[in-house]
Specification:
The protein is α/β, with parallel strands linked by helices. It contains nine helices and ten strands.
Amino acid sequence: MAPRATRSLSHEELSRAARILSLRSRREATGLFAGNYTSAFRGGGLEFEEARPYVPGDDVRTIDWNATARSAEPFVKRFREERNQTLLFALDVSASMGFGSQGCAKADTAAHALALMAAAAGRAGDRTGLVAFDHRVRARVPIGRGGGHSLQVIRTAVQAAGSSRNGTRLRVGLRAVAASTRRRAVVVVISDFRDPELFPETGALQASRLGAAFGDLVSRHDVVAAVIGDPREEEIPAAGSIRLVDPEAPGRTWLLHSGSQRARERYRAACSRRRQHINHSLRRVGVDPVWLRTDRNPLFRLGSFFHERAARRTRGTR
């Protein structure tokens, strides 16, 4: 796993963590997971593979008339998908991504999810690239292909995630990714979306502001948001007085009396409203959200998401 932001690891330790995560993700991203990924993100077209004899049930629209005329037997054309797909990651490495209550920080889960998708992309022959950001771009990996390149993407993600700091500016990451390629790509934004500019904790969000931030990206690319959450951001236990600290605004603290059932219910309701708000806002601007949690392996939720997305595309819905 990627190291938690609270640790201070050497460059060698970070590189070792990246290698372990890469190997683990390659083992996990096989079979059904890899197949669902390929189905969820179609390639750029079809290319002719071979002509074979017609069998009952074949689509008559695929009949190869030239081969049929030469052999006096019906033949059909067989095509295979031409992938030529690009998967671009925008990884949030801000201070809030260092939080984790179950022994795994949000940065860890984000790096694991990225590694799984990078491994699946590598198996499909897709190209990958990375932009890591907080309030500015922290690291980049240009678009490339191959096992060595995938490892470089994962290594850079782990190293950037291992030093989570500063505030979140999603707009910075989105602009950097948009500038990375002119060709259509699948863009995966991995973040907890705790950006006071685009997703303020209080007050109504200006829809035009969010649309402006995502608009150019959505018009040119297929955009997915992997929203990282922690169980303590959904519900808190009865544990007396709890001091809450904002990691992206040093000095901002709150005292929550968790022993009060009313306080816990208000907290839970506020968290639920925030989740619904993020979900609705992202969908409204054309972004497909998938929610991941620090206490669960992202493998299973991503696999389900790919399967659901592939099914929607088969039905012709988003």
